[in-house]
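Justification of resources, computational component.

The compute hours requested in this renewal are based largely on the per-chain cost of generating structure records like the one below. Each record pairs the submitted sequence with a full structure-token output. That output is archived, and it is also reused by downstream analysis tasks.
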Amino acid sequence: METEEEKEAPPGNDCLAEGKCDGQSLNETDSEPTESFDVQNGLPDGKKEFDAPAVGMEFESYDDAYNYYNCYAKEAGFRVRVKNSWFKRNSREKYGAVLCCSSQGFKRIKDVNRLRKETRTGCPAMLRMRVVDSKRWRVLEVTHEHNHLLGAKINKSVKKMGSGTKSKLQSSSDAEVRTIKLYRALVIDAGGNENPNSNAVAVRKFSDHPNQLNLRKGDSQAIYNYLCRLQLTNPNFFYLMDFNDEGHLRNVFWCDSRCRASCGYFGDVIYIDNTCLSNRYETPLVAFVGVNHHGQNVLLGCGLLSGETSESYTWLFKAWLTCVSGQCPQTIITDRCKALQNAIMEVFPKSNHRFSLSFIMRRVPEKLGGLRNYDAIRKMFVKAAFETLKVIEFEAAWGFMVQHFGVTDHEWLRSLYEDRAQWAPVYLKDTFFAGLSASRPGENLSPFFDKYMHKQTPLKEFLDKYELALQKKLKEESLADIESRNTSPALKTRCSFELQLSKLYTREIFKRFQLEVEEMYSCFSTTQLHVDGPIIIFLVKERVLAEGNRREIRDYEVLYDRTASEVRCICSCFNFYGYLCRHALCVLNFNGVEEVPSKYILSRWKKDYKRFYVPDQGSNNGDAVDRMQWFNQLYRSALQVVEEGAVSLDHYKAALQAFEESALPSQRANFIKAREMHQPGIEPGSVPWQGTILPLDHWCFVERVELKNSSCLVSF
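The structure output for this chain reads:
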């Protein structure tokens, strides 16, 4: 539904001369010379307080977006009105709008003879925006050109407004401060630069120095203090700092001891979370994220980059590879980014690089939202991506979508189709994802620090929240460990597969597998399609819930090798999620198999995985003369004892005694002191001596490492 309305700026926005930002004067007075205007470009000469709107800008609300565009328009010398607005039919919630120059269009025929002077010239200047998945308003299209002269004095924009609305508006000064504050927050969103002649608060600059980190005053010292503190208090802490030729900090990477241990256990599949960097957050963070044995996201390292370039990503990946002793991940999942792609090809040539379907789906409203048949196109897009099982089916569905809706030449869709082998599930059935594939509708790869930072979170604040986030994640993992070890899940069927894996899997992974066992009862008619010696292809029919809560029947082909005890379903659930699907279980059951073959029970999902599995990071030769290898191997072994000791008071005492018996004579006093510090009221899992600094000479050393085209300080 479309409605046309005209909107006016709140009173008090007539002049920016006395406005203030965060309590500081903008130093503009009426006595200053009037700006001259560039008629050709339609913009005033000289320096601007408000940057021009650009595609990709985001605002927290419609009012924020309107206030910003109105301020920009007044500075540029034109008025703003609302050309179109779009509302949801049921809730009447606004989800789209077009703001335009007040000279847009022409007078209606019935108004031509009125005495009012004609001011409309058919001006094309406009801004189109829409609500995206993040619930923010994003600018989708901008036209800057005007076809008329612009004036330096614009008193107000045009809006029909009732007296009730007017009475609620703020006073002149309050409204002015509010408007400028809103824009100051949004400049950061858009990557705008600070006006150097203004006394307003500093704003990060994204393009002035692409070869160094964009830091606020005090950020460098905050980074230094943070890394030094972790160096002293966190054993096995690793960091690298990269400087440019002028000695300015360019890139930073760090990975604490627990993250390094997680790399050994869960570094087989990672995704590169560059949300903050690509969306130009105040903190240019890039995170390495994996998934643990409970299906929870786990941090594998962090970096701050000077820019989204191949060089920066290459440096970061080499730093991470050094941290994990050269062990490359099996699969790397990223956003669609050419710089990322080039860096991964150089540093991880043997890894499977795949694009996240979750990231692609987030961009569908932005990229396709302006198309005429958006809802129908999105529906066909989802069907092609998630519901096709064979390549020929995907090709047919995609071809029908672009032909039927006339979007064959759409640039974004065309580039997606060219990259289809890296994101469409139908092409990725031989790639192991460990549940990070997001190959089902509604699945998302959320940013690791999603609840701890936003676009305006300063670096100093993030460094504080970083430890809070990791502590919360650690607590969640510890509680899940205790629950998995000390409780038995309730069985819902009499299937032997369910009983078998209830004793092995962690609780969360078992719940996911248990759902597959339950859904075996929605499958029927398991029949043989083809027999080739010991290899048999079965057809399994399943009743699935389709659109409109109706049931439809789908066919799934399952290959079964009796001699090798191998089973593969066309849905490839095992590679996508790490456990067998309902269709494969039906075939095993049909052939009289009572237990899931051991090759399909991954160790990474077992409840005792971290207790008995020693990850292989480089050489494990005890005779090696590499101190770092010795340290890593001893640390990983000791960490298992530490985690076991945090389970209960008895475990704690047993672990402390084991450490005391194995410690060197000079170190036994430390363990005796720790035992004496324990009080009955302390809960298991807490660390009563937290904050105590261990002697540096027993575990810390610094080494110089030369990476290609970089001088880096590496600390272990």
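Residues 1-47, 152-208, 618-625, 678-716 have pLDDT under 50 and may be disordered. The two ends are 61 Å apart (CA to CA).
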